[in-house]
Structures are given as C-alpha cells and as structure tokens.
Amino acid sequence: MKIFDTDAIGEKWLRKLAGHTSRRSMVSRLGLALVAAPAFPLLPVSRAEAAKPDRSPEAKTAFARNAQSSDDTECNYWRYCAIDGALCSCCGGGIHSCPAGSEPSPVSWVGTCINPDNGKAYLIAYRDCCGKPTCNQCFCDNTDRQTQIYTPQLNNDIIWCFGTQSMQYHCSTAVLVGGAE
Amino acid sequence: MATALLTAAGYAGGTTPLAHPAFGMRDPALARSDYIENCGGCHGVTGSTAPALVPELRGRVGWFLCTPETRDYLLRLPNVAHSRVRDDAQLAELMNYVVYVIGQPNIPVKAQPFTAEDVARARPRALSSVNLTRERARNVAIAMKRCGAPASLRDFYDGQTAR
C-alpha cells in the first residue's frame, strides 16, 4: 500500500467538497460563472463604432503608407489623400492659394489625412479654384474615404465651384483645417 | 426675444474633453472634428459658406431647437440621418455642436440637447422623398411663429435676397 497516494487524496477531497457543497453555493456559482463567461460579451452594445477612429499603422490606407511630406507638387504628398483634380501648386498657385485670375470656392471637400512625420490625422479642405479653364498639370485622383457616386455628397469627383462667379474648374488646393480627433 | 447668450464660445476651439456633458457633448473636440469632416465642406468650418447656396448655420441653426417638430426636422435631414457617423450618441454630440456652438447666440432658452434616443428615432424617418426646400420653409415658419425667429431665416444666408 502506498503511503502517499495523491490520486486518493484528491478524490477524497473532491468527494468531501461535493458532499458539503449545495447546488446553490458560492463555489458552484463561481465555477458556473467561469465556464459561462466567454458565452456573453462583456458589453451589451457594440462599442466599435463609438470608438475614435483607428489611426494605427495597420489601419492606414495604401495612400497613407506611401505618402511623403517634402514635395507638394507630387500626388503622393500626404495632404492630397482625397484630392481629385489638378494641383494648384503646379499651376502657378500654392497648396493654400489659387493661381492669379482664379477665385477660391467657398465650399470644399473635406478629407482626413495622416502626416507621415508624426502619424497624426489632420482635416484637409480641398478647395477648388474656379473661373479659369482647367489647368492640365499634375492631375491626381486619390480616394481615401470616398464612396460610390450614388452617394454624391461622399464622392470627390464633383466640382465644388459653388458660390463663385464662374463654375469653371481650374485646380484644387489642400488647406489644412486642423487636427482630426 | 427668447434667446440665451450661452458661453459656448470656448468650445469652438474645443481641445479639452469635459468631464461632464456640457450642451450634450461629452467630447466637444470629437464633435467638432466630426462636424468639420462630415458637414464642414459645404456648411463651412465656422458654419458659413455664403454666397454658396447652402443654408448658413452660424447664428441661425439654433432656432430649430425650439419645437419638437423643428428639432426632429434637423435630425431627419437626409445627410444627417444617413450620416456615415453610425453611432447614435456620437451623431447626437455632432448635432449638439452644430446647434449650441455654431448656432450661438440664438438658442431658445430651455432648449434640451439632442440625445442618442432622439437620433435613433429620427434615423428611420429620414426626409428622403420630400421636397426639402418646402420642408425647410415649413419649419422656418414654425420657428418664426412659435419662437420669434427672424424672417431672415427664410433665406439660406443673411442678405441672400439683397444680392
């Protein structure tokens, strides 16, 4: 006969526990809770939508991963993530300013772009310059955050020359509005 | 005139989230950012893009808080109800930024902030198949009659008819 039989000791202890523990006891409830917990989500509603946007490197778009911050006459300059049109910086204007003879539209298309230098997201207003024939330089069509044309207010193909003297589209600027949350 | 001069001006710059919901915003900075991203292109970062033919919000949109019907009108506007901001509480905060910050100082006294429940109720009843110009005129008439909103609210922006 063995002097120290762990199996027997364990069995004896468990039988004793089972015999002394009622079905409603703390121990059985705790055991039940441990087994059942994964079956229930911890929060009753989906919080994913309420959370702030994911700006992690993994969540970046192809544009954001390849963007640069040195040359604003190239389509992959970081502020151009949702621009559609000719870059004013190639047409005699600047990233913030319309070329002489054209006027900025009061309305714009707003995009959220990530600055590769600090990884932060910024709100960018694409303000069209209007009133001159289209400038055929540096034509870009970047599409972060835009949807199909059947949701016209969420598509940047539309020319935003509203409220100007002429609806004629010349080029697009990318004005930094502020930080995005 | 039934208006309250609210000290919401500080939130226009909104960088520090408040501990308690002031004017229905737990996170005014996020509400502002959501406004600029989803509405600011056409309505303007500070609520005006006149002379573009877009209803000016600055100093005007708060009038619509005055009756249950006109409040509901704002939430049922297609681009509000179908907003890509899908969380009802987050959209309610965006709309509270619009009425309390951009709409100031013309906010009816006793006006209650929008809640997630208000948004949830309005979303399925989006004004998708009505004449929006007519619907807007009807709600402006209510705000003028019941709350003393100025007749200039009939225009899309102040001075529109003078042009």
TrEMBL record, chain A:
Catalytic EC class: oxidoreductase
Pathway: One-carbon metabolism; methylamine degradation; formaldehyde from methylamine: step 1/1
One BP annotation, GO: amine metabolic process
Residues in the signal sequence: none
Catalytic activity: 2 oxidized [amicyanin] + methylamine + H2O = 2 reduced [amicyanin] + formaldehyde + NH4(+) + 2 H(+)
EC number: 1.4.9.1
Family: Belongs to the aromatic amine dehydrogenase light chain family.
Function of the protein: Methylamine dehydrogenase carries out the oxidation of methylamine. Electrons are passed from methylamine dehydrogenase to amicyanin.
UniProt name for this protein: Methylamine dehydrogenase (amicyanin)
Amino acids binding substrate: 84, 156-158
Annotated Gene Ontology cellular component terms: periplasmic space
S-S bridge residues: 75-140, 81-113, 88-171, 90-138, 91-135, 98-129, 130-161
Modified residues (Tryptophylquinone): 109
Keyword match Magnesium: no
Pfam families: Me-amine-dh_L
Source organism per UniProt: Sphingobium fontiphilum
All residue ranges annotated as the Methylamine/Aralkylamine dehydrogenase light chain C-terminal domain in the record: 68-178
Tryptophan tryptophylquinone (Trp-Trp) cross-link site: 109-160
